Amino acid sequence: RSMSSVTIPPPACILRPLEVPYRYLFGPGPSNVPPRVLASGSRPIIGHLHPEMYEIMNDIKKGIHYAFQTENNMTIAMSGSGHAAMECAVFNTVEPGESVLIAINGIWGERVAEIAERMGANVHKLVKAPGGHFTNIEIEKVGKHKPVLFFLAHGESSAGLCQPVDGIGDICRKHNCLFLVDTVASLGAAPIFMDKQNIDILYTGSQKALNAPPGTAPISFNDRACHKMFNRKTKPVSYLFDMTHLSNYWGCDGKAVRAYHHTGPVSGFFALRESLAILAEKGLEESWRKHKEVAAYLYRGLEDLGLELFIPDKDLRLPSVTTISIPEGYDWREMLVYIMKHHQMEMTGGLGPSIGMVMRIGLMGYNCEKTNADKALHALADALKNCKKSKA
Ligand code: PMP
Fold first, then answer.
1. Per the domain annotation, does 349 fall within a domain?
2. How much distance in Å is there from the Cα of 312 to the middle of ligand 1?
């Protein structure tokens, strides 16, 4: 056979039409995407460096300002999922050998600690069991490690915890440390005020309460964070996530020309813009109120089913992702498979350290309705009836 002949045939599977089932995405994300956002993502592609695209990116920036309650100029959306924002935050603000302090009460602190370890930071950990939260007194003590960065998850989605953040930004300032907060699972569902709460770096994801498709991740840096990241001795380990380039791509560096750095996810940005527009139309206060109301309704229904909420203090529960303890006499995997099979509904188990401890129900943004809580409760009641272990 000649070198130029095709020897690998087209695969039969790819020649079949694409099939995507309809699912109720009542897990911790992605959530269902409203038709309006889906439609915006299917607009024709334009060039990522066309002036119309710059305008759309500028709109996204303004939308993030509102959602984060910040006026930070250095505000962009990452081309990538929430992890891209996690890596961007750490890679740009920390240099190898510098100390960081990571609050770990679930998987997200563990992940950020690993990201920081990989880039050569000196990682200190403040660890609690999943479901635990950190008091300001505990956080105050850890200045002794002289960290340049302190990480906290506002919405700890693996445990269903909403960590209070008031006052922590001031503690970090006192210790000359940047305050990094993860709101991937909480933005739009629970109040956060980047500027007023003195948060130096804040990020979120597109696919949770914002209801955009996965793949973009808003992030913002204040002046303190910019001062640190733009006065480094070493270059960040990632070229793709280097804020020197990304700030130019997003028109944040004051230069007249935006140079090519990478090709942004054009459709993803259309959809993100639309989801930020929906949040702006609805209003943050209304979105927070709605999540709280529907979550409270869900808690009552879960308790009526005899289920136990994993976070006892209702003020510390994350309104977007509710965790329940695994009921005795049941295999959580079997319940989840049953619910998927019979109700076309995703709920999930724990993640990282909370695996085997919890099941998670997410009602986020567009999905956050009492009618959906009823659907979730109905599916759970059905699973409780049909998955009981005879031997347990
Ligand atoms: N942080 C939190 C709190 C999350 O819930 C998630 C997603 N489950 C992430 C970070 C990571 O986001 P992604 O999966 O989009 O990378």
1. yes
2. 24
